Amino acid sequence: MKKFRQVLHRKKQSKEISLEPRNESAPVTIPPPQDSFPDGVKVWYTPDDATVDICFVHGLSGNRDKSWRGEGLSTPWPVAFLPSKTPKARLLTYGYDAYTVRRTVASSNRLIDHASNMLTDLTAVRSSDDATARPLIFVAHSFGGIVCKAAIIKSRNNPEPHLRSIFECTRGIAFMGTPHRGSWLADWARIPAHVLGQVKSTNYYLLDVLQTNNQYLESIQEGFLLMVRQVRESGRDLQITCFFEELPMPRYGSIVNKDSATFEGYNIASIHANHSSMVKFGSEENNGFKRLLGELVRWEKPQRASSPDLPKPDETGMIPAATLGPPASVTLKDTSIGSKDEITGESKPDPSSFHQSGSGHHFNVIGGTQNNNIGSGQQFFGGNFNGPVSFGGSSSDK
What we know:
Strand order of the largest sheet: 1-3-2-5-6-8-9
Number of strands: 11
CATH class: Alpha Beta
Distance between the termini: 64 Å
Oligomer: single chain
Strand content: 5-15%
CATH architecture: 3-Layer(aba) Sandwich
CATH topology: Rossmann fold
GO cellular component, one term: membrane
Keywords: Endoplasmic reticulum, Membrane, Mitochondrion
Structural class: alpha/beta
Number of helices: 11
Protein name: NACHT-NTPase sigma domain-containing protein
Pfam family, one: NACHT_sigma
Subcellular location: Endoplasmic reticulum; Membrane; Mitochondrion
Largest sheet: 7 strands, mixed
């Protein structure tokens, strides 16, 4: 019995010793860091004689490459299809971390932060390539359209000429399922996280903005339409087309309905796809692609005609006036109303009879100034959201 206990004791010691590292100098394996989110501007394609930039902006939970990749394609469809259709266009894509929910940590950036970053990054790329005065076209999906509107308004009111150039050079915007009046899914998305069991972090700032009838979102829309109207009245050409989804998303239905995705007085067209797949064209024969392409070609042609080698002089040596497109860059006098500029909050003469004051981001709307969430004006807060919801992407985009 005594010998048995001695043997058992030795076995326990050997087990305890085996738990210790055998070689203290052995290297420790450290997991590689996760790749940073692919944000900022990426140049997809550059022709030798580019006369226009086309910039693609994805939506919530999207990706600057994957959100535009159709079924069966190894590259984004703009790279696969557009160079032969719009040969003078440089193709750009903009990425930003707009994941509203994460299993780790979600970005805390607000709409204004994404708009500011987009304005700064796009200006920097165009400046470095000596393309500051080049005409610019946007194709924006879902929430990306809201970011575009805010960035252009911010550019318009910026005192720095290089940042103001984005507004001055914008020639067309294709809104693809953009929730100009919000989306019901942001209201639905109040399901508690513990029910879904997947979410550890939520960006409430973005989801609050996207709720239906959100007054901050409405103020952006009114300020944007006022800006567009003033631009057109000045004689400058600024084209807008709104595309809406025809098909529902599985389990969720229609994400952005026609009323929210469009506005009166501007071109409207539908895409026979759901909210996510409406920007994932897999073929040049897709009717949705053809509809969007028709707008891009129409907007790009005037810029192509005004390039140095086009149009050709007639027999008298003169260039026919009818063939000339709009000027490459137009500087407008700032006629925005209200005591503060949209987004920037710069002081302006206030002809309005209604005024709300306070610190924070201001958006001019007809009849007064709207404060965004802080200051002495009204405050707007959305409902709590704790569920994994995607407006502008799908699991395949991540």
